[in-house]
Amino acid sequence: MKPKASLTWLGLLSGTVALTAYSLWFGGEDEELLAGRPNAGQPAVTATAKTAQPVVVVNNTGSTTTLSNGWVQRVGIGEAASDPFHSARKAKEPEVDPSIQAPPPQPTPPVPTGPPPLPFAYLGKLQRGAQIDIYLDFQGQNLIAHVGETIAGGYRLDSMDAAGIHFTYLASGEKQVLSMGVQP
Predict the structure, then answer these.
(1) Residues 165, 157 contacting (CB under 8 angstroms)
(2) DSSP code, position 135
(3) pTM of this prediction?
(4) Which entry of 16, 90, 95, 97 is 20 to 30 Å from 67 by CA?
(5) Which of 80-94, 97-111, 170-184 has the lowest mean pLDDT?
(6) Which residue ranges form the domains of the chain, and what is each CATH number?
(7) 20 three-class SS
(8) How many CA atoms lie within 13 A of 129 on its CB side?
(9) First-last CA distance in the chain
(10) What's the half-sphere exposure (Cβ side, CA atoms, 13 Å) at 46?
(11) Could you tell me if 34 and 41 are in contact, meaning their C-beta atoms sit under 8 angstroms apart?
């Protein structure tokens, strides 16, 4: 590099450093410079920004552009205005063959009617004189039931015979039989 060019660049660099140091050292605060001015430190508002009406421009392709307060907004594209990679072409709707029909909907399974399954398990029985104690398991709890009693879950114990224990579900009045697990 030529010595004259080196001195020129060195002079420019040292001048820039000197001006930067001067402005930092003696520059003062912005508030002092703006003191006494109305709306000091606030962004400038032009009269046209408050009174300007939007202008709608329609180009030869039919798309509409709204010019408002110096900003350009595209209308009719939706969120595509914020997407710089959005194609201006509208996507074609897929063609559907009218001869093809959708399969009929599956029938809903029938709702079971009647009482829920018995929530009891037979544990055993004990006969004391004329009275029979029937031991049942109900959701992990041991129950002692007698013929004619209403027990947990809304069931009435009707009778006990070789076929099993007969219950009536009180909500619907339907009868159910609980097998005792004894095979003949």
Answers:
(1) yes
(2) E
(3) 0.39
(4) 90
(5) 80-94
(6) 47-78 (no CATH), 120-178 (2.30.30)
(7) helix
(8) 1
(9) 118
(10) 5
(11) yes
Q: Does 88 have pLDDT greater than 70?
A: no
Residue 87 near residue 77, CB atoms below 8 Å: no
Report the pLDDT value the prediction gives residue 43, as an integer from 0 to 100.
57
Question: Which position has the higher pLDDT, 77 or 179?
Answer: 179
pLDDT-derived band of residue 104, with 50, 70 and 90 as boundaries? Answer: confident
Tell me: pLDDT of 90 over 70: no
132-153 pLDDT per residue, tens: 999 999 989 999 999 999 998 7
Q: Which two tokens stand for residue 142?
A: 């041991």
Task: For residue 119, give both structure tokens.
Answer: 């929530």
Q: Are 172 and 115 in contact (CB under 8 A)?
A: yes
Q: Which CA distances in Å does 76 have to 88, 89, 181?
A: 11, 12, 75
Q: How many helices (H) and strands (E) does the chain have?
A: 3, 10
pLDDT at position 23 over 70: yes
Sheet holding 55-58, edge to edge: 55-58, 64-68, 71-75
Per-residue burial over 55-88, b = 16 or more CB atoms within 10 Å of its CB, e = otherwise: eeeeeeeeeeeeeeeeeeeeeeeeeeeeeeeeee
Closest C-alpha to 147, from 156, 135, 137: 156
